[in-house]
From TrEMBL:
Compartments in which it is found: Endoplasmic reticulum membrane; Microsome membrane
PANTHER family linked to this entry: CYTOCHROME P450 4D1-RELATED, CYTOCHROME P450 FAMILY 4
Protein name: Cytochrome P450 4d1-like
GO molecular function annotations of the record: heme binding; iron ion binding; monooxygenase activity; oxidoreductase activity, acting on paired donors, with incorporation or reduction of molecular oxygen
Primary location class: endoplasmic reticulum
Length: 164
């Protein structure tokens, strides 16, 4: 799967063939270093899960926390990109479980473009370099919640030219 990115030096990533990179797409989905929090103000009183929510309430929604709920994602802390396979995975049944680009009428209008951009960059880096993590593997990275989620310390990688 996605074999062409890694073995064919001549392969050019473009808008047309970007859809063939399904595994890469799932891997990006698995990465949640996206926006970890967004919010909405309730304009009209409503009820959610049996709770009365008065008008004027601010509601915080955390895509990061949703992605860690076992009732939505099995083994949420495991790297399982194939969970994002819409064809075979049952985990994406709820369209509001995975919302790094938010959801509803005010969701991200740049979602498709952003995914294409990330895929183009990752595909080209992987095509040219073999990458090894050379940072500390004894401790999990400390996460810092700013506008986006990032690690407190840099993650260290070694890049070597791929030999074809
Ligand atoms: C990985 C990259 C990106 C992520 C994770 C992301 C995430 C989001 C999220 C979560 C929202 C909704 C915020 C909310 O509900 O309060 C949003 C809105 C928005 N995004 Fe993105 N975004 C990304 C890239 C982009 C790009 C590349 C563009 C433009 C080319 C863009 C344009 C917008 C715009 C215009 C809105 C506001 C939509 C509205 O309010 O109706 N985003 N984005």
């Amino acid at each position: 799967m996605d074999r062409e990115f890694y073995v064919d030096h001549e392969f050019e990533f473009d808008v047309v063939n970007s859809n063939s990179s399904r595994f890469l797409h799932w891997c990006i989905g698995q990465d949640d270093l996206f926006m970890h929090f967004n919010s909405r103000r309730v304009v009209e009183e409503c009820e959610i899960n049996g709770k009365r929510i008065p008008a004027g309430t601010n509601i915080g929604i955390s895509p990061l926390y949703l992605g860690r709920r076992v009732e939505l994602f099995s083994e949420p802390n495991s790297f399982k990109p194939e969970r994002f396979d819409v064809v075979t995975s049952a985990e994406k049944l709820n369209p509001y479980a995975y919302i790094p680009f938010s959801a509803g009428p005010r969701n991200c209008i740049g979602q498709k473009f952003a995914m294409l951009e990330i895929k183009a960059i990752v595909a080209n880096v992987l095509r040219h370099y073999h990458i090894d993590f050379v940072g500390d593997t004894t401790e999990p990275p400390v996460l810092i919640a700013e506008l986006i989620l990032r690690t407190k310390d840099p993650l260290l990688f070694k890049l070597q030219d791929r030999v074809y």
